[in-house]
Amino acid sequence: MQYAAVDAYCLIHILEVFKTKAVTEGNSVESATGLQLSQLDLGLKQIFDTQQNSNKMCGIKFGEALEMVQAIPPDFCKTIPISDEEVTALSPDQANRMDYVLSQIVRKYGDKILLSESDRKPKISRKKAKKSSGRVANTRSPAEVGEEWQGPPPWDATSGGDGCPKFLCDVMVEGLAKHLRCVGIDAAVPYSKKPESRDLIEQACKEKRVLLTRDAKLLRHDYLLKNQIYRVKSLLKNDQLVEVIETFQLEISEDQLMSRCTKCNGKFIQKPLTTEEAVEAAKGFQVIPNCLFNKNLEFWQCMDCKQLYWEGTQYRNAVQKFVDVCKLNE
Questions:
Q1: What percent of the chain has a predicted confidence (pLDDT) above 70?
Q2: Alpha-carbon gap, residue 15 to 11, rounded angstroms
Q3: Over the stretch 73-129, which tens digit does the pLDDT of each residue have?
């Protein structure tokens, strides 16, 4: 609708150009045939390639425009007599009144430029679907399936869940998975690097997760449950994180920040390790910088992948970043 309105707005300015050209270049259609190609704007040159086309196109286009102006309802322009000569030589006062008439037409009929329901639906390819033993993909549009969240989520206690939010982020929003982990939310990634759509959905169902994606095609499968998938609309990771938090009404506290392993989504050990214990745990696995030995730091280890973490400068910067993104200081 906005695109159509801009068309109407631009056409008013185009009309202004034609009115000016009509006044400066003559009072009749025939006078337009003497125009030189160098005087024409790009796009009109093709129309005036030959003298014969010039006469024909000028006559037709000018005539149609004149008929449209003459078709203006009488109650809009009682004081503006329309004729061939007067249209081509409007005075400044008449031009202003003509602009007013056109703006009134736009106001009166602009709201009738509406999209039909068929225009709102995406075009669906008519190519023959591939034969398969599985179910056939649904032809419903993304707006009808999963575009907006239709909870409750599978972890909801009333649905037999444990009350802990859990997500599965496909490869298109893999960065979002790390951001969710940074704020303490359980966020898994696919088992394989190039999973099939059915594999993603089965993993989400098996682990009682909501599948997060930006792929609209995933929303069209008929074996989807309404609370199994959500299409992320934002492009930037910080915006995606805020969108998921608001959509699923997640409660984030500062104590949750950096409480999960960003590498594998695992949980940390219950008690921190001393420097000596961390050095022993890191042997043959991870290198701890020597500059950390004299800082009396606490080390935390992921129970799944055994990755070691400590509260250094990067940790403090990350905490402050997610405090700001999630607006926890408010």
A1: 62
A2: 6
A3: 444 444 444 444 444 445 667 666 766 776 666 666 555 544 455 545 555 555 544
Higher-confidence position of 63 and 301: 301
The answer for residues whose C-beta is within 8 angstroms of residue 296's C-beta and 6 or more apart is 275
Angle among Cα 284, 319, 245 to the nearest 5 degrees reads 110
pLDDT at 44 over 60: no
Say which amino acid occupies 292.
L
Mention every residue, 6+ apart, whose C-beta is less than 8 A from residue 278: 288, 299, 301, 308, 310
Helix spans in 207-286 (H): 237-247, 275-282
> CB–CB of 147/217 below 8 Å?
no
Beta pairing partners, 187: 167
Residue 273, classed as helix, strand or coil, is strand
- What whole-number distance in Å separates Cα of residue 79 and Cα of residue 77? 5
DSSP, residue by residue, 63-132: HHHHHHHHTS-GGG-TT----HHHHTT--HHHHHHHHHHHHHHHHHHGGG----HHHHSPP---SPPPP-
| Structure token digits, residue 235 | 């492009």
Among 28, 121, 157, 43, smallest CA distance to 83 is for: 28
- The encoded tokens of residue 163 equal 């009350």
Residues 6+ apart with CB under 8 A from 291: none
List C-alpha distances in Å: 177 to 41, 43, 56: 52, 50, 64
Residues shown for the chain: 330
pLDDT value at 61 more than 50: no
> DSSP H helical segments within the chain, as ranges?
2-25, 51-70, 84-87, 92-109, 117-120, 174-182, 197-206, 237-247, 275-282, 313-325
